[in-house]
Amino acid sequence: MNEPNRIVSSEAEELILVDTDDNETGFLSKADCHDGDGVLHRAFSLFLFNDDGELLLQQRSESKRLWPGYWSNSICSHPRRGESMAVATRRRLLDELNIEAELEFIYKFNYQAGFGERGSENELCHVYLGKAPADIRPNESEISAVRFIAPAELDREFAEKPESLTPWFRMEWQVLSTDYQDRLLDYASLE
Q1: Which one is catalytic: 33, 54, 76, 142?
Q2: CA 93 to CA 173: how far, in whole Å?
Q3: Which of 46, 48, 49, 163 could, after both became Cys, cross-link 56 (CB 3.0–4.6 A)?
Q4: So what's the pLDDT on residue 143?
């Protein structure tokens, strides 16, 4: 197996530029995609749940350019130039948590969020649900901490401490828990 805390991403890696219909329009470095207001690129967010229906959260590494130290969904990343979504999500499961998991695509959406002078996210993001295995080993070069949280407690955290959570996570959770509650019930304990 690979070194669990290896460096797995770079500002130079090429991301896939897309239009608002998710058609590829070109490629650009990760750094350039996140400069200024950002350039629209393809991304994904994974929501992994344990057997008790709790969601795995990750605290982003302090070395991240955007939203360092913020809590977010299980994994959020980008496919690289030439990668399918299936290959990219499988790669990031191994890169960030040193695991494999089956994923179910739920929906995709476009959002833009700025982080002051550091740059912005401008993404067409594919959202997936899955089950987290018990043997998670977070990559410390990407993740500062992990924890599992019950959905009801997560809702309280969004209400009481929204500033500690990434903006895309807030948007995605709202849509999942309202528009896709039937799919979410297959993974989460919503009581």
Answers
A1: 76
A2: 20
A3: 48
A4: 95
How much is the pLDDT for 35?
A: 95
65 found inside a domain:
yes
Which of 54, 96, 121, 123 is flagged as catalytic? 123
Is residue 157 among the annotated active site residues? no
Per DSSP, the residues of the chain read ---TT-----TTSEEEEE-TT--EEEEEEHHHHTSTT---EEEEEEEEE-TTSPEEEEEEPTT-SSSTT-EE-SEEE-PBTT--HHHHHHHHIIIIIS----EEEEEEEEEEEE-GGG-EEEEEEEEEEEEPPS-----TTTEEEEEEE-HHHHHHHHHH-GGGB-HHHHHHHHHHHHHTHHHHTTT----
Domain count, the chain: 1
Q: How many CB atoms lie within 10 A of CB 20?
A: 8
**Could you read off the pLDDT of 76-130 as tens digits, one per residue?**
999 999 999 999 999 999 999 999 999 999 999 999 999 989 999 999 999 999 9
Q: Is 62 annotated as catalytic? A: no
**pTM passes above 0.85:** yes
**Residue 58 resides in a domain:** yes
Let me know if residue 129 belongs to a domain: yes
- Of 9-23, 51-65, 74-88, 120-134, which range is least confident? 9-23
